[in-house]
Amino acid sequence: MIAGAGPAGLTAALELLRRSNIMPMVFEADGQVGGISKTINYRGNRMDLGGHRFFSKSDWVMRWWQEILPVAACTPTGSRDDDRLQLRYQGQSRDFEPNKIAAASSDEVMLLRQRLSRIYHRRRFFDYPLKLNANTLLNMGLAETLRVGASYGRAQLRRRYPEKTLEDFLVNRFGLRLYQTFFEAYTEKVWGVPCAEISAEWGAQRIKGLSVRKAIAHALAVPFRSRADTAQRRTETSLIERFLYPKHGPGQLWEAVARRVAQHGGQIHLRHRVVGTERDGFRVTAVHARDEVTGEVRRVPCDFLLSTVPVSELTAMLDPADDEVNRIAARLPYRDFMTVGLLVRKMLGVGAARSRVQGNGMPPDNWIYIQEPDVKIGRLQVFNNWSPAMVADPAMIWLGLEYFCREGDELWSMDDGQFIDRAAGELEKIGMIDRNDVLDGTLVRVPKAYPAYFGEYSRFGKVRAYLDRFSNLYPVGRNGMHRYNNQDHSMLAANSAVTAMLDGGRGKAQIWKINADDGYHEEVDEVA
Question: Is 225 domain-assigned?
């Protein structure tokens, strides 16, 4: 039994079918698969919720993705002979048979995309991650650059120890001045709390080894790096510059996986929410799944339960006798997310991007981090630059304006039309568009998008210990583990869970080690 048809749930379902005679049954509350990695189709314009770069330092994940959707024939950089094409990624060469590489015009393919993300601050563009180049120095000015350098030097001489908070983590790696300029306000916009209240564990998982020292090394190495090295094994995750991307967005891949699950005998029930469990001691014996259309609740016996539902909901369904476990789980914090899709005729080509924009003013970025304090928008996606196929009319610009909020707050509760109008006004306010060029818009709300690392999270170990007592229960995925995982981390956790299931429960502890510390992906190349 699998609760949730996101990357973790679908990976587990397909791996069970490939590696055993178990026929998985998947219940998904949404009307489509993919979880937060789904693709929203609005009048032919496609939205990627949060932006999903298909990159992993796991060979297993890279092979898995490309077995589902082959890389378009135009992306390999060389060929060995008439029968094989070669693509370099993960620091290695991979040969592909021609019948496994679709034509670039095919729809069922992955595209090789160039990554560009920048910071928009003081109505100017800065590279993201920050790079020590002429553009950064020019935008900051000589005096501010010297102050930043002095602040970084002081941080290295007087490092904060132990690193308890995200503020400690960032100041140690960037210095107080750079932290206050580029990290503090934006991070608090995202999470809604001061960095001094967020665990340093978030930085270790999401920013990993990035620092001023790594930025310098990266800048020096760029001229000598092979462009054929798609996955760039030795590059920190935050500095990756090329990635694979499904032609029609991330949901395209997970829809293809769902079809394979069904073709091999697995069952996927959309609009069915797991609302309860039955257990015999510390073994789950059945789940209750509610049809969200009819309201009917059915009882389904299970041998295993792989859960991707939020830990707070799962724990309540397991009805722990320990009141403290109940309280901690119920109070685990989340950050919710809203994306406005905005179709515009043109943009204004502001700031340092002017020399790189297209004729309609569209910047070359995948997304832009908006660090202006006078607006609520957090990030701006340019969907055209993820894949041209994301836009119905290639002459138009299809944007995603991302807002971080809390379910039930002022932003979340705003009327759709009012919110879309506000978002357009904010983009006009910071000089990126003229509101008269807006043609259409839509709004998507995503509850519990980001498990948060503050508040009761500091006591999460007690909840985890309770869940681990269940012999046939496997919490995986971003919400299932209350861990800010990328989709490849969720896939690796699901694959490890399948391995443990088929090995009598041995190896369950390995699931929690995935994306748990700074060195995981640098030390472990493959989990199979």
Answer: no
